[in-house]
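Protocol step 4 of 5: obtain the predicted structure for the target chain.
Materials: sequence only (see below). No template structures provided, no constraints applied. The aim of this step is simply to have a reference model before the mutagenesis design in step 5. Sequence pasted as it appears in the construct record:
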Amino acid sequence: MYTLYGSPSSRAFRVLWMLEELELPFEFVPSKPRSDEVLALNPSGKIPVLRDGEAVLTDSTAILTYLADKHGKLTHPAGSVARAHQDALTHTVLDEFDAVLWTAARHGFVLPEEQRVPAVKPSLKWEFERNLARLAQRFAGPFLQGETMTIADIICVHCLNWAHSAKFPVEDETLKAYSKRMRARPAFQRAQARGV
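Step 4 output (structure tokens):
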């Protein structure tokens, strides 16, 4: 059985959702970054952390990829062209959405106050909107890769939700409808209920 350490309001939500999509048994240990239980498993103190027996895995994308490959779901086969497209989409979402939102968070509340540059937020919002427009142009639906849901969808929808809470506008109707459909999935709802 898997044990997941993290907070539902962090990137650990991606792993919670993935585990629910896979309908796997797991234990969830609500944990904050740099807490004693997390530091015992991950010297960086970062969450999420997934324990699979004696193996300890870190980084939400690495964990999602591991779970998808291990269970053969929400992914395309390694070495296939479809997998290369999936990996490209995953990295695009990480580079163009996650990184922008994380930079805004760091300059909003994560970094020590004297290291923050609040004036960067309008530029980040502009970049986020530009990146959203590009994604909307290539969106085929119902998922990012057409008919197949992959880990890229989990990361993307997590970022769209994060954008909403960070007050980064998501105006494109297609992407708003996509996000709404994804949030209505039973597995998403079960994962979200763990954070209540």
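Step 4 remarks: The longest helix spans residues 81-110. The mean pLDDT is 95.
Proceed to step 5.
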